[in-house]
Q: What sequence folds into this?
């Protein structure tokens, strides 16, 4: 009898179960890794789009970061409670984006670019 070779039906069944479990764990691991990688890529892509350059005026930079934080908090509220707040949450996000854009334009004036 060679070592590592099951001799009974129970030992053979246990070996098959271990292999099946490991295959399931491996498959689940690949699925999770794929989902994680997709999510990470999407988050990085979104961050690259959403993250703008540092503004030259420190107060403008702080104001823009506060607006970005406020937008994220409203989005979090929409995820927890549903997106419909009578349209007011979406409008608030739109206005905060406009305000952030105006701050960037004000910073361009500060730098003498306009």
A:
């Amino acid at each position: 009898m060679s070592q590592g070779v099951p001799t009974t039906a129970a030992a053979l069944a246990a070996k098959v179960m271990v292999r099946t479990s490991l295959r399931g764990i491996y498959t689940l691991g690949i699925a999770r890794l794929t989902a994680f990688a997709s999510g990470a890529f999407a988050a990085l892509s979104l961050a690259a789009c959403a993250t703008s350059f540092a503004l030259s005026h420190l107060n403008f930079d702080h104001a823009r970061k506060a607006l970005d934080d406020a937008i994220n908090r409203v989005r979090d509220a929409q995820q927890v409670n549903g997106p419909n707040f009578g349209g007011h949450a979406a409008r608030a996000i739109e206005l905060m984006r406009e305000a952030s854009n105006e701050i960037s334009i004000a910073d361009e004036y500060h730098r003498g670019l306009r």
Notes: The helical segments are 9-50, 58-81, 88-110. The chain has two domains: 1-51, 53-114. The longest helix spans residues 9-50.
